[in-house]
Amino acid sequence: MPYHHCPCTSLVLSNTIRNLKIKGLSTIYFIIQRRHEFKKFGRD
Question: How far apart are CA 28 and CA 39, in angstroms?
């Protein structure tokens, strides 16, 4: 059952992947920001 022949499934799959990427990027960005803040507080 190849999923790429069904446009519906591939659309859902690409949407899911895009959402995961956005979630991952925002999480990484959030962690980096928090680390930066902690570094600032630690140096002060």
Answer: 16
**pLDDT, averaged across the chain:** 81
Contact 20, 30 (CB under 8 A): no
Q: Would you say 9 and 3 are in contact if contact means Cβ atoms under 8 Å apart?
A: yes
Give a three-class secondary structure readout of the chain: CCHHHCHHHHHHHHHHHHHHHHHHHHHHHHHHHHHHHHHHHHHC
Q: What is the pTM of this model?
A: 0.50
User: Rounded distance, CA 8 to CA 26, Å?
Assistant: 27
Q: What is the largest CA-CA distance in the chain?
A: 59
